[in-house]
Design brief:
The structure is a single chain. By secondary structure, the chain is α+β, with helices and mostly antiparallel strands. It folds into 2 domains: 3-116 and 154-311, no CATH class; 318-435, Alpha-Beta Plaits (2-Layer Sandwich), CATH 3.30.70. Helices cover 28% and strands 25% of the residues. It is built from 12 helices and 19 strands. The protein has helices at 19-25, 39-51, 61-74, 88-101, 122-127, 158-165, 178-190, 197-210, 261-268, 337-354, 399-406, 412-415, and strands at residues 3-10, 31-34, 78-81, 110-114, 148-153, 170-173, 238-242, 247-250, 278-279, 284-286, 291-294, 300-303, 306-308, 313-333, 361-367, 387-396, 420-421, 431-442, 449-452. The chain has a 10-stranded mixed β-sheet with strand order 11-12-8-7-1-2-3-6-4-19, sandwiched between helices. Helix 1 (19-25) runs parallel beside helix 3 (61-74) and helix 6 packs across helix 7 (178-190). The protein is globular, with a radius of gyration of 25 Å.
Length: 453
């Protein structure tokens, strides 16, 4: 039975720069998939493109391709990445320039999957009755229309399959599903049909299992975390897929980390939602049908997966301006560190109130006591606590009020409780808030655009 090996080399924009190189150099693989995009990433890229029309993509991808492209072409490793962000053509042209620099331009076909960016057609869509209501609040998109910064449809695997059929060795997409990057090679290599729901669901779950990189191979793992070996040399996950829809998760030998069913389960529940109905553009996958078998030697088998027909809707990721924020902190040292930090917070709030400053929200966390879990303390913590970080954040629509807040934290050093330390960072920085608006739209309203250069 035919099998292929699909390696993940990137879990987010900012992940290890060496991971994809090590996946290529560490052993046999057929595909390298790189997941750069999160919801907030699209708005960051949109801002970059507004400043420079040539930008708007994951620029780390271009020097990476300069390092690995010769080996990928030599060993026929295909690269699939959503590094294109809001400018997949710009990203593809930058990669082509690198290929030409290496003397490989005539040997590489680069596929572009675009059409997901609907910023330019939002008003037309709204006028046609596509309301793009917020999936959480049911509000209509028109209520925030002036603040919108980016709007992108999540395409699935099939446009990538189209690019593969046209001979692309490197495929660069805009906003597509994380799972589609891995599912597409399986559809292409095994000839799966559009209604082969069980196998499409299996490929979707394979993609979900490795989309966060080393989180599937021992990184960020709670189970027996102290004994996971050599995380400094952690191996990123590899799917070994078979045409019947079964697959293994493994990693290159001589790498750190661990792949067991216990580790894999932690990744499976990540962003899962309803376990019976994990909805993608390609199918609906039933996570409760997953069966796992530990084969030893960092190999876990998946089988028995069930899937159901895809819906008629695409998910849309929309980001919009939501005012401003600033976050600052002071560290109070022993003795009575917590008592001092609480007193400082009370003093600060009184001063902000006396200045007439108004915020939509002000939040104080006492790091070292309750910040991570938000647990209300019953009584005072021990006076022997060595230090407490008082972290204060404000947000609101009035930028001037946020800026004034940033100037009120430092005076506490000499006009508040004693033993402040750790203020070397200076004044907090005022930042724009980007909020997230999830919506749905009919698939009939939009089509992906696939191009080969």
């Amino acid at each position: 039975m035919k099998t292929i090996r699909i390696a993940n080399g990137q879990g987010f924009w900012g992940d290890s720069l060496e991971a994809p190189v090590r996946q290529v150099e560490g052993g046999p693989i057929d595909y390298l998939v790189l997941d750069y995009l999160a919801e907030i990433t699209m708005s960051i890229m949109q801002k970059q493109r507004a400043r420079d029309p040539k930008l708007g993509y994951a620029r780390d991808f271009v020097p990476l391709m300069e390092r690995i492209l010769p080996q990928c072409l030599e060993r026929n490793i295909k690269v699939i990445a959503n590094a294109g962000g809001v400018n997949p053509r710009g990203c593809a042209e930058a990669v082509l320039a690198v290929a030409n620099k290496l003397g490989l331009g005539d040997r590489v076909k680069i596929g572009i999957v675009a059409g997901d960016d609907i910023m330019g057609s939002l008003d037309e869509l709204l006028a046609s009755g596509v309301e793009l209501r917020n999936m959480d609040t049911n509000e209509v998109l028109s209520s925030i229309r002036p603040q919108i910064q980016s709007a992108n449809v999540y395409f699935g695997a099939w446009p990538i399959v189209d690019a593969l059929k046209q001979g692309a060795q490197v495929i660069i997409t805009g906003r597509c599903t994380d799972t589609g990057l891995t599912l597409a090679p399986m559809i292409y290599e095994f000839g799966w049909g559009e209604n082969d729901w069980d196998r499409l669901a299996a490929g979707t779950i394979a993609g979900h299992s490795i989309e966060c990189g080393a989180q599937a191979s021992g990184g960020n793992c709670q189970v027996d975390w102290e004994n996971i070996p050599d995380l400094a040399n952690v191996g990123y996950p590899i799917i070994e897929a078979s045409e019947d829809g079964t697959f293994l998760i493994t990693k290159h030998s001589n790498t750190g980390g661990r792949i067991t069913s216990a580790v894999v389960k932690e990744q499976l529940v990540y962003e899962m939602g309803d376990p019976v109905s994990y909805i993608t553009p390609d199918c609906v996958a039933d996570f409760t049908s997953i069966q796992l078998e530990d084969l030893g030697n960092d190999r876990v088998k998946f089988f028995g997966i069930k899937g159901y027909p895809a819906t008629e809707l695409y998910k849309v990721s929309i980001s919009y301006e939501f005012g401003y924020k600033a976050v600052g902190s002071l560290v109070y040292a022993w003795p009575d560190a917590y008592k001092k930090a609480k007193a400082a917070d009370k003093i600060l709030r009184a001063r902000l109130d006396s200045l007439g400053l108004r915020f939509d929200e002000i939040l104080t966390e006492f790091v070292g006591v309750d910040a991570c879990h938000g647990i209300e303390l019953s009584g005072e913590p021990s006076s022997e606590i060595a230090e407490i970080q008082m972290r204060v954040g404000v947000r609101g629509a009035n930028k001037a009020d946020i800026e004034r807040f940033t100037k009120e934290l430092a005076p506490l050093v000499l006009t508040g409780p004693p033993t402040v330390t750790g203020f070397a960072g200076g004044r907090p920085k005022v930042e724009e808030i980007v909020a997230y608006w999830p919506a749905l739209m009919p698939k009939s309203c939009i089509s992906p655009k696939v191009e080969i250069i």
